[in-house]
Design goal:
76 residues, mainly alpha, 3 helices
């Protein structure tokens, strides 16, 4: 049975991994300018899950959408 200390660790781990998983799915669904950009974002999210996910949603997804609008096609 999990004691309180282990339950808190599990909750913290879950709170870090869920945004990272959502960010990875979003990265893979977005049309990148290049394959290198996709690999770079994936590595950022894998190395620093919470920070990488926050950066993707704050910077990466917005710039990918702007590039898609310039091309005349939606990125999502």
């Amino acid at each position: 049975m999990l004691d309180a200390f282990d339950a808190w660790h599990a909750l913290i781990l879950l709170l870090a991994l869920v945004p990272a998983a959502v960010a990875l799915v979003s990265i893979l669904r977005t049309r990148p300018a290049s394959g290198t950009e996709t690999v770079l974002w994936i590595l950022i999210v894998l190395v620093a899950p919470l920070l990488g996910a926050l950066l993707w949603f704050a910077i990466g997804r917005r710039s990918a959408r702007a590039r898609g609008a310039e091309r005349g096609s939606p990125s999502d």
